[in-house]
UniProtKB/TrEMBL annotation, chain A:
CDD domains per record: TM_PBP2
Any GO BP annotation: amino acid transport
Compartmental location: Cell inner membrane; Cell membrane
Domain ABC transmembrane type-1: 12-205
Full protein name: Amino acid ABC transporter membrane protein 2 (PAAT family)
UniProtKB/TrEMBL annotation, chain B:
Pfam families, A to Z: ABC_tran
GO molecular function terms noted in the UniProt entry: ABC-type amino acid transporter activity; ATP binding; ATP hydrolysis activity
This protein's name: Amino acid ABC transporter ATP-binding protein (PAAT family)
Family: Belongs to the ABC transporter superfamily.
Organism phylogeny: Bacteria, Pseudomonadati, Pseudomonadota, Alphaproteobacteria, Hyphomicrobiales
Amino acid sequence: MRSFSLIDFVSLFAALRWTVALVALALAFGAPLALGLAMGRISRFASLRWAMAACIQVIQSVPLLGLLFFFYFGMPVFLGIQVPALVAVTVAYTLYTAAFLGEIWRGGLEAVKQAQWEAGACLGLSAWQQFRHIIAPQALRLSLPPTVGFLVQLIKGTSLASILGFVELARAGQVVSAATFQPLLTYALVAAIYFALCLPLTLWSRSLEARLDGSR
Amino acid sequence: MALVEIRDVHKTFGKVEVLKGVSLDVEEGEIVTIIGRSGSGKSTLLRCINALESVDSGEIRVEGQKVHAGMPDLKKFRQRVGIVFQAFNLFPHLKVERNITLAPLLTGRIEKAKARALAEDVLTRVGLADKIDAWPEQLSGGQQQRVAIARCLAMAPHLMLFDEVTSALDPELVGEVLKVMEAMAKQGMTMILVTHEMGFARNVADRIVFMHQGRVWEQGPPAKLFANPETPELASFIASAK
């Protein structure tokens, strides 16, 4: 046993890199996928709409912990493929991000009036041009606050990666607490760091909400 | 050959037959006003001319080309046929200039260097040159509608359709929009309007088309139609519209 020292403080902050890395990976792969899902959900092809809705429904219904377990422990059992932990968490967080962001963005796209598509079509624009220049920018503005809200969820959700051995912030807290026997102090610090990470995002989201009335 | 030829067009929404065999010709340079009660099929007919709706049977030709939603060069076609809506439908996230230049730039009608000049030109024609850098929400309804007209003009259409463009406006703002349309009429633009503005129909239109129950019930020059309606339906419509 040793007392809580600067080195523990540093190790907590060092562990932040995994928290940030996991969020970055989840967004890098999940956001493009989310865009695809959202576009599929508003497609004029019913079969595509149904398929995308089913994907989203399944992923949203499984706890994040379940996704992590499935891709790390389940894949070798069911499919005989042993994937590295980093791949497993990346896939799990990517799907999680895609399903939730996809629904948020779908809502944003549908909130833009149908007449806006029509106005673009009547000027001779292609469906893609209508989407890219008229619908998507308006939908993005409408979706920003809930998107940031999800980002906060995602940051906190990365703590679950600790069960696969990732020494991110939450796991680092466990380690430090075990070494110093100062759980109260350690976890208070961990909580403060999460808070410091999420608060600016929440504030940013709130200011966006106030500034963007959704129409412009 | 007429610019617009409509032959025995039928259109059904669900179980309701909205158009029951409409035939109509519109010559180049002609101003045709379609009047009639709600549900008479006026707006649907207008939307069919622009292929926003497909006809069930019969055919519509514009400049000799058969119009339908699946036509091969629908985008090119729509660049030649402008439509202005009751609800303006400006793009709220773009300034007035970009609202106007977006389509001409994306469709390759003009180069980037000439975009601003084009916006200035069409805005001058609707009397709003000073609003080029405004956001749509900063404009009154009448101004927004004039920008919507300018946005259409920027595509240099051969034919313009107006779907109750003054119906959503406060009464004191109607005049400025009608004045713009009257000026366009004088410049020889071919126009088909659906409107409740009887004064405008009487003074500016070359021909009035009265639609009733999905059919062209009666048509002719405004002076004759308003003075001597041949059918009791038109007579009662005129009486109620006064």
